[in-house]
From TrEMBL:
Pfam families xrefs: SRPRB
Gene Ontology terms: cellular component: endoplasmic reticulum membrane
Keywords annotated in UniProt: Endoplasmic reticulum, GTP-binding, Membrane, Nucleotide-binding, Receptor, Transmembrane, Transmembrane helix
Signal sequence, start to end: none
Biological classification of the source: Eukaryota, Metazoa, Ecdysozoa, Arthropoda, Hexapoda
Transmembrane residue ranges: 20-42
SUPFAM superfamilies reported in the protein's UniProt record: P-loop containing nucleoside triphosphate hydrolases
One term of GO molecular function: GTP binding
Subcellular location, principal: endoplasmic reticulum
Coiled-coil blocks: none
Descriptive protein name: Signal recognition particle receptor subunit beta
Lineage top rank: taxon: Eukaryota
Subcellular location: Endoplasmic reticulum membrane
Amino acid sequence: MSSEAKFQFTPTEIFSRPDSQFYGIVVAVIAILISIVFFAIWKRSKSVKNCILLTGLCDSGKTLIYSHLLHNKFVATHTSIKENVGDYFIKNRCLRLIDIPGHERLRGRYIDTYKGLARGVVFVIDSVTLQKEIRDAAEFLYTLLLDPVLLKAKPQLLILCNKQDQTMAKGANVVKSLLEKELNVLKVTKTNQLTSIEGSSNTAYLGSAGKDFDFSQSTIPVEFAECCAFRKDENTEPELKSIPKWLESFV
């Protein structure tokens, strides 16, 4: 018998050999380790992206809402110059709440820092002063609705109409209507500006082309709710039930 023929084996004979069993065990172990690594990466990415951003204009009540949710207490607030970060526990799960400064010179930097980790965004509206601040509020909201990172991640967006305890406060339906009208004005204006620039391309478009904007057209899911973060005295509780109810959808 030739040396070449001496070492020829059928597939059945190969896998029946002891060393083949060893190799099979090694392959199985490697496959399990790879699965564990991929699962760990997936779980880590899911757990890291657990931030809820509290945004809005100055004096809308963001920090007061943040304080009530995390510490259940009223605090005298002032215009924030840096973010507030804390853990909010609900149904034995943890969400990271981030109170973003409302000043126009600061908010963009902090939103850029955290938007990649956002599962949800709360846009707080001062329901009393909205008509005076409608342009600023709509421009801020317009930026969020067309942000490339947020468009890709599609976090839930809650527009929270605060200060509902005051007589002149606008309800959620009125706030929604006012914002839609102003956003539509911005949509037309900015689209015309882009098309007037030779060679420009509008990569992100608010709503549907040729139609007046309404929030049902938003790529990012939008909800509205009302609240009152102000506590008149020690015996008065703030009306913030809508926020924990909304946050429950993330756990």
